[in-house]
Design a protein that fits this description.
By secondary structure, the chain is mainly α. Strands 1-2-3 form a three-stranded parallel sheet. β2, α2 and β3 form a beta-alpha-beta unit. α2 packs across α5, α7 packs across α10 and α8 packs across α9.
């Protein structure tokens, strides 16, 4: 079996733009595996982008420690192999074992952690940062940080855009159903 072509994509983090680029590549070239090089990557990110041909993930810091790593990972992906950064596999196994605590929301590509879903639901209800903090037992700064992460992950700049995105994607219904359980 001849080695396949492999594409290397880079990103600071796995946000909406990264997800869209991976999805677009996969739609055009479903048989070409992707090696994703990213600064920040977690188990929930891998779950979100895995359906789009990501065969291997390398954290940028790993390349500083081992300059030949990317070539070895590309060769592995070309032969049909898969690779995750050290420690990430155990995080994914933990997430799979506790889906109610770790699972990302909804369809592949919705990059929201459960804590971010909780905040977005309350934003959709019209609560202020202080109201959300009180309801969830968090500090207003924790809520502000979570809101920033939601904006980055969804590629939006305001609360209204985040809620509109969630509504268009049908997530508000999925989220409220999840809350009802």
């Amino acid at each position: 079996m001849a080695p396949r072509d492999v594409v290397v994509m880079t990103a600071d983090r796995i946000d909406r733009a990264c997800h869209d680029a991976l999805k677009s590549h996969y739609e055009r070239h479903p048989d070409v595996p992707v090696v994703l090089v990213a600064d920040l990557v977690g188990a929930h990110d891998i779950v979100a982008v895995a359906p789009y041909g990501v065969a291997a993930v390398v954290r940028t810091a790993e390349l500083h420690d081992d300059p030949d790593l990317l070539q070895r990972v590309k060769a592995l992906a070309a032969e049909g192999g898969h690779r995750l950064p050290p420690g990430l596999g155990s995080s994914i196994r933990t997430a799979a074992a506790e889906p109610t605590r770790q699972q990302t929301l909804g369809q592949p590509g919705i990059l929201l952690k459960p804590s971010e879903v909780d905040v977005l639901l309350l934003v959709a209800e019209g609560l202020t940062r202080m109201g959300i903090a009180r309801r969830l037992g968090r500090s207003p700064e924790q809520v502000r940080s979570t809101l920033k992460n939601i904006f980055v992950r969804l590629g939006v700049h305001q609360r209204a855009e985040a809620v509109a995105y969630a509504a268009r994607a049908g997530l508000l219904w999925a989220m409220s159903d999840r809350e009802a359980r």
